[in-house]
Write a structure and sequence with these properties.
With 254 residues, this protein is of the alpha/beta class. The protein contains ten helices and eleven strands. Bound molecules: adenosine-5'-triphosphate and magnesium ion (MG).
């Protein structure tokens, strides 16, 4: 199916002509005979907030895992700041500035908040870790008082914050998030989404937000892509997608 492109204003961040900080060109990936990504292309401007939406099994997680080299692309390219990172091992992708918070966050519950954050700093290439630690603590006031507590004592929202904080310890340019709202109450989800916008504004982060909570994700982002069976079924400014009944009913379930 051809992707439907919606009209609308360009998103915040960069002009449509500027080179995107993250560009995905005709990316395909499979699990054996199952083609999970089929010719997916997207472009994310620096400091943009971009949603990737779609039903169960649409290919969202596979897209993020392929971007960070956890899953191998069968064809196509991933460009980060113009550099082809498609075939790089994951640790090199991360040190080049692409961070990935997996579904569930992946924090280690037996370790303290501080230990989890410092683990994230191990991916740094420049090793000025103590500076970054203080900066990350500044960005997440609720974590400061929990610094010496194990992650098991945190609420779901605090764990998600910790997972994001840990990813930021590597000083990424682009943050990929896989369903951060999963299992969170609506109010906490809103706080996490607002936090993403704050991070963009405060530290110039670019965010790719994978979500099944399409309405919430479109209300915080500027641009959205809708995946269906591994292909981009629709894309456009987030407010346009929110207003587009056909796309909402066909792919987004609201
Ligand atoms: N490890 C795997 N082995 C085989 N097939 C897989 C594997 N992981 C995913 N798939 C298949 O690839 C397709 C895309 O799955 P993916 O997990 O990327 O979707 P998703 O959009 O993240 O779904 P969800 O919303 O449920 O997280 C689906 O058909 C899925 O069954
Ligand atoms: Mg998934």
């Amino acid at each position: 199916m051809n992707a439907q492109t919606l009209p609308g204003a360009a998103g915040n961040g960069a002009s449509p002509d500027a080179e995107p900080i993250l560009a995905v060109e005709n990316l395909s990936a499979s699990y054996g005979a199952v083609r999970a990504l089929d010719n997916v292309s997207l472009a994310v401007p620096a400091q943009g907030l971009c949603a990737v939406l779609g039903a169960n099994g649409a290919g969202k997680t596979t897209l993020l895992r392929t971007l960070t080299g956890l899953h191998r692309a069968s064809s196509g390219r991933v460009l980060l700041e113009g550099e082809d990172i498609t075939r790089l091992p994951t640790e090199k992708v991360i040190t080049r500035g692409l961070a990935h918070v997996p579904e569930g966050g992946g924090v280690i519950v037996e370790l303290t908040v501080e230990e989890n954050l410092r683990l994230g700093g191990l991916w740094r290439s420049d090793r000025r870790s103590s500076t970054t630690f203080d900066e990350v603590m500044d960005l997440f006031p609720p974590l400061v008082e929990r610094r010496t507590k194990t992650a098991s004592t945190l609420s779901g929202g605090e764990r998600q914050m910790l997972a994001i904080g840990r990813a930021l310890m590597g000083r990424p340019r682009v943050l990929l998030l896989d369903e951060p709202s999963l299992g969170l109450a609506p109010l906490v989800t809103k706080q996490i989404f607002t936090l993403l916008r704050d991070l963009r504004d405060r530290i110039g982060l670019t965010v790719v937000l994978v979500e099944q909570n399409a309405a919430g994700a479109l209300s915080v982002t500027e641009h959205g892509y809708v995946l269906n069976q591994g292909s981009v079924a629709a894309e456009g400014p987030s407010d346009g997608l929110l207003a587009d009944d056909r796309t909402r009913h066909a792919y987004l379930g609201f």
